[in-house]
Design a protein that fits this description.
The complex is a heterodimer.
Chain A: E1 14-17, H1 23-29, E2 35-39, H2 49-60, E3 63-66, H3 80-93, E4 98-101, E5 104-107, E6 110-116, H4 122-139, E7 143-146, H5 161-172, E8 175-179, H6 180-190, H7 194-200, E9 206-212, E10 215-216, E11 221-222, H8 231-244, E12 248-252, H9 260-268, H10 271-276, H11 287-294
Parallel strand pairs in A: 1-2, 1-12, 2-3, 3-4, 4-7, 7-8, 8-9, 9-12
Antiparallel strand pairs in A: 5-6, 10-11
Helix pairs in contact in A: 4-5, 7-8, 7-11
Chain B: H1 3-15, H2 35-42, H3 51-73, H4 75-81, H5 83-96, H6 111-116, H7 126-144, H8 153-157, E1 166-167, E2 172-176, H9 180-191, H10 199-215, E3 221-228, E4 231-237, H11 239-249, H12 254-261, H13 272-285, E5 289-290
Antiparallel strand pairs in B: 1-5, 2-3, 3-4
Helix pairs in contact in B: 1-2, 2-3, 3-5, 4-5, 4-7, 9-10, 11-12
Classes of the chains: A alpha/beta, B mainly alpha.
């Protein structure tokens, strides 16, 4: 597969999210970590400790920005102040790519601060792709969009989630942050085969992969990011890596955060799959892919 | 109107509507709309959850996230109004003033003005509630506002009575009727005492908190909320300090600010020169003057 501006991060290895409870450990012990992912909004400020810590981290580690409130799928226009501050941070971090979610979350200037699922309609494809293009042009950095976990589907949807994702990224000419935990969570909540999803995504656009833990409730699964990664998610990860070859991978752990060493050790389990995939991606399609086609 | 925009407005209206007392999505909204039929028109049910139940997951997530953030920002306000009333205050404030910012940091930005229009949350200790709200919002601003470059020796040498002295954007000055900073420090220190796992300790802490609030006597104070080496501090000011800083912040020249500070001052005229020298030395050391 030819390298492009989205899938060229084959040497990034395994990163973890930069979280406040780990600041002291990282700054004093200086552990070896391939890279850190930061939540952009936590650093889109004018001063204070968060920025000082970020600058120290930037001195010693590779940092990639991940946003939670761009809401590419919102029908209302983006907030210019948000974009201005985001661009300021992009200049500071020199992030090689910038990710945010394929979702909506604000309307008429009011923010839900949640990652709400899109209706998979052609109108939504157009609105979302236009907005991603606008943001990508303004920020002058490759944008990659992440699939979200969801608990609801709309009657108006005209395609599957992965078809929607594929249409949006083609029209926007952007990359993908494939969250395999989110795929698993949504597959259980909506009753689809997660391997069909993984096999349908264009590998040449996958810049990064997210792995995380989730919580099972009686009637649904919630994307809680407060557990180690569960086996079904590792299986999806393995299949993704089989298709893409080595790809920048990040473990998300955002609640009930254990020690730095515990989080890092969990993340490094991904190396089992990454190191085995040091060769070019496998072809022809494996059994999971055939299952996907058959459906 | 686009179909996407219409759908997003309808979903947002459902999600941002307050929960019931049992923290569930209400069957019927305050405006009479049935959430059951509304959800069914746009959300697909599945074999385990109805349309209503699927929408309810988002409704609950929305409020739990906002409550958690708001409580973290205003622990002092919660102590002075009481836990039960604080629950209602959060619900009503966030219903009237939903977030208009990409960051949850600004969630409390309209709280003081909203409280002034809602006396039911101020009584019976109106000024104490307002003072605590102002202190906690000032703390949030002082934590991450910009820090500009300090004045250097050349800048200092050119200062005269006509100079306009700029202060750090993170500096906030408050005139308060209660010593709420002492109360807030005590509350924070108690909540961080490390005995959270014990029910007895928790009950004792709650009792101490109630007593502390009840015992707080009015005291007219002036306070600077500022940042030093990335930590937020509260510094008591004299009346003259406060008036001088307030005048500088409003754009007065140094000469006019000093004149304002000494109106009705108890500082004898012969001591004023030394007083000015002391405060400027202290404030310079704290890094409050900037270019």
């Amino acid at each position: 597969m030819p390298a492009n501006r989205f899938n060229g991060y084959t040497d990034y290895g395994v990163g973890i999210g930069l979280r406040i409870p780990h600041y002291r450990h990282i700054l004093t012990k200086k552990p070896v970590v391939d890279w850190f992912e930061i939540i952009s909004e936590n650093y889109m400020i004018d001063g204070g400790r968060p920025l000082e810590v970020l600058d120290k981290i930037l001195d010693q580690y590779k940092v990639v920005q991940h946003g939670v409130s761009m809401y590419f799928g919102s029908a209302s226009d983006p907030d210019p102040e948000h974009l201005r501050r985001l661009k300021q941070l992009v200049k500071r971090t020199r992030t090689p790519w910038l990710s945010d979610h394929l979702c909506w979350g604000s309307v008429d200037g009011r923010y839900t601060h949640d990652l709400l699922p899109m209706p998979y309609t052609w109108e939504a494809v157009k609105v979302t792709a236009d907005r991603i293009r606008h943001v990508q042009d303004f920020l002058e950095v490759p944008v990659v969009v992440e699939n979200v976990s969801s608990y609801a589907e709309y009657h108006v949807s005209e395609m599957t989630e992965w078809e929607f994702l594929n249409e949006v990224v083609e029209r926007a000419d952007c990359g993908i942050l494939l969250d395999v935990n989110n795929i698993y969570v949504s597959s259980q909540n909506h009753g689809f085969d997660p391997f069909v999803y993984v096999n349908a995504v264009p590998t040449q656009r996958i810049a990064q992969i997210h792995i995380a833990g989730h919580s099972k409730f009686e009637k649904y699964i919630l994307d809680t990011h407060d557990h180690p990664v569960l086996d079904p998610v590792w299986e999806l990860y393995a299949r993704t890596i089989e298709r893409t070859g080595p790809t920048a991978t990040l473990l998300e752990w955002d609640d009930k955060i254990p020690s730095f060493d515990e989080v890092h050790a969990e993340a490094l389990k991904a190396n089992r799959f990454l190191q085995g995939a040091a060769q070019p991606p496998s072809e022809p399609a494996k059994s999971h892919e055939l299952e996907g086609v058959a459906r | 109107m686009s179909e996407l925009l219409e759908l997003q407005r309808r979903v947002a209206a459902a999600i941002m509507h307050p929960l019931t007392r049992n923290e569930t999505m209400p069957r019927r909204r305050r405006d009479g709309v049935s959430n059951t039929s509304e959800a069914a028109t746009y959300i697909k049910p599945n074999d385990r959850l109805s349309s209503f139940e699927r929408l309810e997951i988002y409704n609950r997530q929305y409020w739990f996230r906002l409550y958690s953030c708001f409580e973290e920002d205003f622990p002092g306000l919660k102590a002075v109004v009481g836990a039960q009333k604080f629950e209602l205050l959060m619900r009503d404030y966030l219903t009237d003033c939903p977030s208009q910012s990409f960051t949850l940091r600004n969630l409390g930005s309209r709280l003081e003005s909203w409280l002034l229009e809602h006396p039911e949350y101020l009584d019976p200790r109106r000024q104490l509630v307002l003072d605590m709200c102002r202190l906690e919002w000032a703390h949030i601003e002082a934590f991450d506002e910009a820090e500009n470059p300090l004045l250097d020796a050349d800048d200092l040498a050119t200062i005269d009575e006509h100079s306009l002295l700029h202060l750090q954007p993170y500096l906030r000055i408050l005139e308060l009727q209660y010593p709420v900073e002492d109360l807030l420090i005590a509350l924070r220190s108690e909540s961080g005492s490390g005995d959270a796992s014990s029910n007895n300790a928790s009950a004792a802490r709650k009792t101490r908190r109630v007593r502390r609030v009840a015992a707080l006597e009015p005291e007219h104070i002036f306070l600077a909320v500022h940042r030093h080496e990335n930590s937020v501090y509260y510094k008591r000011l004299d009346r003259e300090d406060y008036l001088l800083l307030k005048a500088l912040l409003s754009g007065a020249s140094l000469g006019n600010a000093i004149e304002t500070a000494f109106v009705d001052s108890v500082i004898p005229e012969e001591d004023r020169g030394r007083w000015l020298q002391q405060i400027f030395t202290s404030w310079s050391a704290l890094g409050w003057f900037t270019r």
